[in-house]
Design brief:
By secondary structure, the chain is of the alpha/beta class. The chain contains 7 helices and 23 strands. It is rod-shaped, with a radius of gyration of 44 Å.
Length: 395
């Protein structure tokens, strides 16, 4: 007969009577089950209680899916003694376990290190993987759990091929049974950090947050097979490419975005990207003019600026600007109001024709009312001047 118990388990479905489902607090099974399911025997000792017998019995552990809760493993989080419908693990922990279940990690006893947060040095008995071995100065020893002191013979360093990970100041203790990895020193030397879960551990890069190494928990310990890094390719081992290629891969973002990504495979190069410039432009560039003025006063450009927030000494708040296209000469006329443009330009035109003995042929301005009015239009017709109006939104 075998003894099972649900002690410590909380029924996640209180409306269901567990006794009707065969989950009693104490249940007994026969030594020889009636079905043909194979089973294996395990020695179990029972203490004396209320005059009951004390001895050794054969505990039958059946491979049938209907065995007791003691051998159940949650497929959601990997924890023991509960099912997925009663699992209290967070979604993040459950996702991490699923990621572990999707990979297969081969471990070799000779290559396995055990992470230890209480140690103060890396320790190993294998001298083949230690480089730069020197004799240990002193008579110090490593104290183990049974009180025995294990002598330290030498020290050295361990490097992982094809990676930048290293173990500095490793103590060679020939009598030690397991290789111990000092977590604090390892994370400081390699700029990384560990995440420990009930089912395993994850090693991540501190800067890129990239997963470097994964390992399952075994017998309450967190073994780490560092040699798997030399066979599993990771992204930071890739060949470096130019930042222009990453710029194109990511859809031509700003340079600040590439800087924030901190991609280890990116070579720092900055070259002007034509696609990026065209994507940022709100309009196409204007084409150059094919003809320009060939003489003084051939073509005049004019515009009105104002109103100024502060009037001039004479109380003027508007200013008429006339530019000769050929000589780039500028005339500047203060005005009290925009309607004074017709009076000022009539006087200006007569003065220029008299002084320089030439005629204005083209006058260009915007379509404002100070230029497009009856007075100026009659003046242009009388003197044979072509009035060109610039398109809105163009220089």
């Amino acid at each position: 007969m075998a003894f099972y118990t649900n002690r410590g388990r909380t029924n996640s479905k209180p409306w269901i009577n567990t006794r009707t489902r065969g989950h009693n607090h104490c249940s007994f099974t026969r030594r020889n089950p009636t079905n043909n399911t194979p089973s294996r025997a395990k020695e179990t000792c029972f203490p004396r209680q209320n005059g009951s017998f004390t001895g050794t019995r054969q505990k039958q552990i059946s491979h049938n899916s209907n065995h007791g809760h003691g051998s159940i493993t949650c497929f959601r989080c990997g924890g023991p003694n509960h099912k997925a419908d009663g699992c209290f693990a967070s979604n993040e922990e459950a996702d991490q376990y699923k990621a572990f279940a999707a990979i297969k990690i081969g471990e070799t006893a000779e290559e396995t290190w055990y992470s230890d947060t209480r140690a103060n040095h890396h320790m190993t008995s294998d001298t083949n993987e230690v480089q730069g071995i020197i004799s240990y100065p002193g008579n110090d020893s490593v104290m183990v759990g049974n009180g025995q002191g294990l002598p330290i013979t030498s020290t050295g360093n361990v490097t992982i091929p094809t990676t930048n990970l290293k173990l500095n100041d490793v103590l060679v203790v020939l009598a030690i049974k397991k290789k111990l990895l000092y977590v604090s020193q390892f994370t400081r030397d390699n700029n990384c950090y560990f995440l420990f879960y009930p089912w395993g551990s994850i090693l991540k890069d501190m800067k890129t947050k990239q997963v470097i190494l994964k390992g399952f928990m075994k017998d309450g310990l967190y073994p780490i097979n560092l040699q798997q890094l030399s066979t599993i390719p990771v992204s930071f081992l890739a060949n470096k490419v130019s930042s222009n290629l990453w710029h194109a891969r990511l859809g031509h973002p700003q340079a600040e975005i590439l800087t924030k990504l901190c991609l280890p495979s990116m070579d720092k190069q900055n070259v002007l990207c034509e696609s990026y410039v065209l994507g940022k432009s709100t309009k196409l560039p204007f084409e150059s003019r094919k003809s320009y003025a060939t003489a003084f006063l051939h073509t005049l450009h004019s515009d009105v600026w104002g109103p100024a927030s502060v009037p001039s000494y004479d109380g003027n708040r508007f200013y008429l600007i006339i530019v000769d296209e050929y000589s780039q000469h500028i005339w500047f006329f203060p005005m009290n109001q925009k309607s004074d443009v017709a009076i000022i330009f009539t006087s200006f035109l007569k003065q220029m024709e008299t002084q320089f003995d030439t005629h204005v042929k083209i006058f260009q301005s915007d379509g404002g009312g100070e230029f497009v009015n009856q007075s100026l239009q009659n003046l242009f017709k009388t003197n044979g001047i072509i009035h060109r109006i610039s398109c809105p939104g163009t220089p």
